[in-house]
Amino acid sequence: MQEPSWKISEVASTKNLKRRSISAACSWNPGCSRPFASKISSCAEGDRVKRKRVSVDSNIALGTKQNKLMKPIEVKTMSKEKKDEAPEPIVPFPKSLSERAMVRTGISSPLAVKKSPMKVTSKKKVVTKLEECTSHASLQPQSCLSRSRAEKSASSLYHHDKRPTKSIPGLQAHSRRLNACRSNVVYYGSKKNNVPANPRAKVKRCLHIFKVRCRNLLRAIESGKKPANMEDNRIDRKVASIMRKGKETLNRDKPVVGPVPGIEVGDKYRYRAELCILGLHQPLQAGIGTTVRNGKRIATSVVVSGGYPDKVVNKDVLIYSGSGGKPTGKPGHTKPKDQKLEGGNLGLKNSLDMKIPVRVIYGWETRNRGKAMMTYSYDGLYEVENYWLEPRTYEVKGKPMAAYVFKFQLRRMKGQPEQNWCKLKRIQMSKVREGLCSEDISLGKEVHPISVVNTINNEKVPQFRYIPKTVYPSWYQKSLPKGCKCKSQCSVETCSCVVKNKGKISFNFDGAIVREKPLIYECGPACGCPPSCYNRVSQNGIKFPLEVFKTKIRGWGVRSLLSIPSGSFVCEYVGIGRPSSDMGVRSSEGVKEWFTVDAQEMGNVGRFINRSCSPNLFAQHVLFDYDDKKMPHIMFFAAENIPPLKELTYQYKYGSVHDSDGKEKVKECYHGTS
Ligand SMILES: C[S@@+](CC[C@H](N)C(=O)[O-])C[C@H]1O[C@@H](n2cnc3c(N)ncnc32)[C@H](O)[C@@H]1O
């Protein structure tokens, strides 16, 4: 296996490398699957140090206090837990935020679907008599259709399970510990006011605040404390307005023209309000975002979400309809009006004249168990190439009525990353998958095949034995947990597993984690509840079509061929469960023995997941089939909505390691580019 592309810049002296440094080594590289020998050779000093670094480096330590990311189950934590084990008052099982928000806020798709697609015949100004106009507008952008189709087909390609995996923004991120995990973004600049200097980290932080505030507001409303000044139940909009007032939004004062720092092509969002708080698209409702430059109104962004008959000609060309003129049905506005060259329309025209790029965001409707939900995806920068007037027919009280509308032709600018949906389409269309090394590295051991792809070089995936579950030494006696006696779905009122979880079920009805905890007890084989119980999630295995792929600079990595909604279970970190003493790691702080998961010789797809300072996964300890806090399962969950083909990463927590001069050591980490 190749040497790592980064190295520890200095090796601490034996004297200075105390317990902290062991954990730091561990946390830097918990899942490394490099052979021991290569690690030993990479260590410069002290045999003892080498052994420690090597052994811990190679594995995820389950019981080390220092390995904070893994939320170790150490003695202190355990004893605390025991004290806390007296059940808290049982609270009603909450639905997911999104679900409740959907019900309460009435967020439904603005996409009214009409099937006949509009034909754009001319790019020049069209001067057609109104009565000649017969074109019927399509309200569903074709791109949206092809996009969702591409994803669906990818899903069918990989026999994607139909189990719902709806995104749950706003819930799973909110426990204190998860906050800690997520806020582990690297502070490249000043840590003043806790504001990260890295633009990507700023974006993540802003979205995180949004989610936390949504949840808090929802709680307040549920307990009858709806803010007096809140007229409707649009929690997302209310939170966006609170954040604007509290100056917690990004790029609000000076709207950004061109790329928004920290936002990448393919980023996905659930709410328009999220686009607004990030400054990706400022208006909450209007399709065209504008600002003023040199005294002229220019367009900064457009949202294509079906409100107007826009048309996607191909992956680079979009015909965008101007705004206004629609009959609203309100007094004085019952008939369609000709659009005027003002507001957003004027902005787009001026952007053409001034050659100013416009951000394009696509929104499309997806359905989950019959419920409508929107997904927005940033598609990149476009240039306005042309505009013209065109008649459009509206149906008013059953009668066709026509008015002129503006059409703007936008072309995607060159030099931007290819959109993921296009890549997916290409993958799906091609008979032979480019760079395919293995169709299923799990050799049928996982429900969904795990392909291996290398389009970078000729390297093959390293030799290891694929195991879907962690194996433990033969002498190790697993103790079965006491199961609940529920006959149907577990409920907070009656289930003894819920009591173990301190009165709360950590998952929502869609199988997304809503509460990160030091340890989650799922119902297990000893429980009376059915396999469909909401408290059985990560034990059901991988649900997404994962793929191992060769990255440019981080060796092999893992990605999904489908979007992963925030909070979804992704995979377990599997390997050989070894007592830490076997690994040359001494117990500390009264811990007699704990287990580490060694994925070097045997493991699953989890062994290929790389680290990032801005991860999109987090690790959660889970117990269900045995009752030993020293060796919980390490389960990865999505910390955010993850677009297809985006590399999956988690944070190998880097504790503070100091050199002999007491200076904190810094290690290079490559992320951002695959
Ligand atoms: C758990 S393995 C991940 C799979 C690994 N990339 C491979 O090719 O097998 C951890 C190793 O990947 C590499 N790695 C992981 N994240 C990295 C990052 N952000 N930058 C550079 N190297 C990284 C390091 O060599 C590390 O020891």
TrEMBL record:
Native source species: Rhynchospora breviuscula
Keyword terms: Chromosome, Nucleus
Gene Ontology CC terms: chromosome; nucleus
GO molecular function term, any single one: histone methyltransferase activity
Compartment list: Chromosome; Nucleus
Pfam family, any one: SAD_SRA
Residues covered by region (Disordered): 141-174, 323-344
Origin superkingdom: Eukaryota
Keyword Phosphoprotein: no
SMART domains to which the protein is assigned, alphabetical: PreSET (SM00468), SET (SM00317), SRA (SM00466)
PROSITE patterns (alphabetical): PRE_SET (PS50867), SET (PS50280), YDG (PS51015)
Pre-SET domain span: 482-541
Residue span, YDG domain: 258-412
InterPro entries: H3K9_HMTase_SUVAR3-9, Pre-SET_dom, PUA-like_sf, SET_dom, SET_dom_sf, SRA-YDG_sf, SRA_YDG
Name of the protein this chain belongs to: Uncharacterized protein
Domain SET: 544-653
Keyword DNA-binding: no
Gene3D superfamilies associated with the record: SET domain, SRA-YDG
